[in-house]
Design a protein that fits this description.
Blueprint lengths: L1 H4 L6 H4 L2 E2 L4 E2 L11 E4 L7 H9 L6 E4 L14 H7 L13 H4 L2 H10 L16 E5 L3 H20 L7 E5 L8 H12 L5 E4 L2 E4 L3 E4 L13 E8 L4 E6 L2 E6 L6 E3 L2 E3 H4 L4 E8 L9 H8 L2 E9 L1 H9 L10 H7 L1
Parallel strand pairs: 3-4, 5-16, 6-14, 6-15, 15-16
Antiparallel strand pairs: 1-2, 7-8, 9-10, 9-13, 10-11, 11-12
Helix pairs in contact: 4-12, 6-10, 7-8, 10-11
Length: 339
């Protein structure tokens, strides 16, 4: 957001100045945010508890704009806040449904809209012109894994110039299995960063220059769940690892490394709220339980310049047609109407 707008952007936790030592958010009704207008992006990710604390910290004379996509995954925490606010018809809502001329040139945007409507994406094989959305058909997990590794470690960089670590992100529906997060990270680490200077902690090898992710909020370090960084130093004598997040070096004791996982491949839920120049998505019927429209839509819309799906047509069709999502029972929309 900082790159896009030219203005400083923060997570809501940073904005509200969460302090573990002081016991919660330091911005509240007694110490409100000093702003006239607050814009919140990716509002579909906000749960009821976080929205409660956010609204408490906004002055009554300030304005709030929520920007989000209710067709993506709902928040990890309780509630369905953005969807309920829209359904309440109690605040002005603007829906951006039209694809403008410039956007029509992007197959990512066109196909994201098709997926959202329950239509299988279009892959034009009749032209040799480059596009930004590809489907490579592989029916067996081992074949798909081999193709995925070839794409990430050579073919994508050769054809499009994307760096395998900095620009390419593998997003997968599952945590387990041949094409799950765990195995993909092991296999991708072997080919992207085949170094000998590794430490073994928490069931995983961590190497210098590895791409890693923080998986829990660490308020002491000011690093939060989903932050991605690179290991810049391993000090075996002091038993410390330095990881750089957004040009900020953060030191971890070996005992803290259970908060860190490899991030060459991430789950859909961990990718939500982020964008990457290039996204590679494995999609096979072994992911059956996770073949859902909103999951696929969320994966596809993480890619800014290139999206490549490796998998079976059957799995793709199942995901596009399956709009059954776990129902969330909330009363927010009705209560908003009442007020």
């Amino acid at each position: 957001m900082t790159e896009s707008t030219g203005h400083e952007a923060k997570t809501i936790h940073r904005l509200l100045e969460f302090s573990f030592q002081k016991g919660g958010f330091q911005k509240n009704e007694e110490h409100p945010l000093n702003c006239d207008l607050l814009v919140i992006d990716e509002a579909s990710m906000i749960d009821t508890v976080l929205m409660y604390h956010l609204l408490k910290a906004i002055r009554s004379d300030a304005s709030l704009i929520l920007v989000g996509d209710v067709n993506q995954l709902p928040s990890v925490g309780p509630g369905n806040v953005l969807k309920d606010i829209i359904a309440s018809d109690s605040i002005p809502v603007v829906r951006l449904n039209e694809i403008f001329r410039q956007a029509k040139e992007s197959a990512i945007i066109v196909n994201a809209h098709l997926i959202n409507k329950g239509v299988v994406p279009i892959f034009d094989r009749t032209t040799s012109e480059p596009t930004d959305f590809y489907f490579i058909e592989k029916d067996e997990p081992e074949e798909a894994l081999k193709t995925l590794l070839e794409l990430v470690t050579g073919r994508i960089e050769k054809a499009f110039g994307f760096n395998p670590v900095e620009d390419v992100q593998v997003i997968t529906p599952m945590n387990r299995g041949t094409l799950g997060v765990g195995n993909l990270n092991v296999e991708l680490q072997k080919v992207i960063n085949p170094r000998d200077d590794a430490i073994f902690r928490g069931g995983k090898n961590l190497r210098l220059k590895d791409k890693v992710m923080q998986i829990v909020n660490n308020y002491d370090k000011n690093i939060y769940n989903g932050d991605i960084g690179t290991i810049s130093r391993i000090d075996t004598e002091a038993q410390e690892v330095t990881i750089v997040f957004d040009n900020k070096p953060v030191i971890y004791d070996y005992s803290d490394l259970d908060e860190i996982v490899l991030a060459y491949a991430v789950s859909i839920h961990k990718s939500q709220g982020s964008e990457y120049p290039c996204v590679v998505i494995p999609l096979l019927t072994q992911h059956y339980m996770m073949l859902q429209r909103n999951l696929l839509y969320t994966e596809v819309t993480r890619g800014k310049k290139l999206v490549i799906i490796v998998g079976s047509k059957k799995a793709l069709a199942i995901a596009v047609k399956n709009e059954k999502t776990q129902k969330r029972y909330t009363d927010l929309a009705r209560r908003l109407r009442r007020h």
